[in-house]
């Protein structure tokens, strides 16, 4: 039986304290299709020969008490752990639960695309224990205190993992510090903006001036601005697409959204990035570039900005690391996303940048839609909705494709847990350490499986995922989420504490 939780209500603690809305759900999920089960204990141990903790991977047992990690017994835990119950997972990997800072759950308003119940259930099935919902694709978009309340109400009793929310930076609030502060005080973890048309009517694009003004307000709260960094250059290289180009060809779509769009956006952000340096106008604010696709000039510009002291992080997504444009079949619009999947050489450069630490973290950018919007029968890349449906599969996809590059379990934990937790301001998440939330995934890296019709998929619409039919390794066995409801309280200066309810 799937446990139904409830959203923690906004708690009026004091004028300077605001609720950051995260739900804590009792959850242990098996991918075998048996459903979910509650562990009837608030004090237990889980153990294996491969626990990712304390900068190492090795035998250990983790004591969970009252929803938190209480202690870690390293080494020959079978002789150390005398208390029961003990869940011994043998040689399976025990790792911090994944934190996905970029997912679109589309509720309220577009439940037919995806919703909190299906989205968070798919997240749990994939080892994700916390996700942060994007402010657009739902209707209305989350751009004000009032629209955030609608989002919270829509999530009531539907969540199976922890969920937080980003708010939107749009032209209507960018020059209104009071409106932004109300949104931040209402509980969003940071803001998100688009530098090109978003495809959503009530989420307008911003320019660098909007962004620079928004960063001034964010600096007071020490929360990040996430930016979709594509900008249509003022002068294009050519007159546009040839009308005779085949819209079913992925090469046509790739030409319609070249890497120069990403480069133009990053160049336009150079002053904003400089403002985040020590002594800058927006010192204390942070810029996070979402779903980087261009591993050439755009990346080099950001590497320079980081080296010069900008407060800047970069994410990319598993679909940019798993696929290349040459491999996308004609008419298969499941692969359409923005920015586009680029060529194989670019993919290699993305992997190198990730391994070298220039790209900081990974996210799903789970962006589903109703199946008819993907135009899969027509196969028109120029008209189909863009977005990769991936939430449940990101751990095995990252692992399966990363083995070629020798990635380690510690790197996985850094890209998917530690650094995303820091971005979202969650100081007690992202690691298996005493005092941290007991958010844990147990999985078998060597276990191979085929994403065929018999595989249990919990997304709203399984048929729109580009990963269907793929052979992957890395099967999630169980996902644990702290069984206690907790409310994370975030002050204007990002001091965090837990309030037991």
UniProtKB/TrEMBL annotation:
InterPro entries (UniProt xref): Allantoinase (IPR017593), ALN_composite (IPR056854), Amidohydro-rel (IPR006680), DHOase/Allantoinase_Hydrolase (IPR050138), Metal-dep_hydrolase_composite (IPR011059), Metal_Hydrolase (IPR032466)
EC number of the protein: 3.5.2.5
Keyword terms of this UniProt record: Hydrolase, Metal-binding, Zinc
Location of the Allantoinase composite domain: 39-92
Enzyme class, spelled out: hydrolase
GO molecular function: allantoinase activity; cobalt ion binding; zinc ion binding
Cofactor(s), names only, from the UniProt record: Zn(2+)
Gene3D superfamilies, alphabetized: Metal-dependent hydrolases
Pfam families: ALN_composite (PF24890), Amidohydro_1 (PF01979)
Pathway: Nitrogen metabolism; (S)-allantoin degradation; allantoate from (S)-allantoin: step 1/1
Reaction catalysed by this enzyme: (S)-allantoin + H2O = allantoate + H(+)
Known role: Catalyzes the conversion of allantoin (5-ureidohydantoin) to allantoate by hydrolytic cleavage of the five-member hydantoin ring. Catalyzes the first step of the ureide allantoin degradation followed by the sequential activity of AAH, UGLYAH and UAH which allows a complete purine breakdown without the intermediate generation of urea.
Family indicated by similarity: Belongs to the metallo-dependent hydrolases superfamily. Allantoinase family.
Subunit organization: Homotetramer.
Protein name: allantoinase
UniProt source species: Paspalum notatum var. saurae
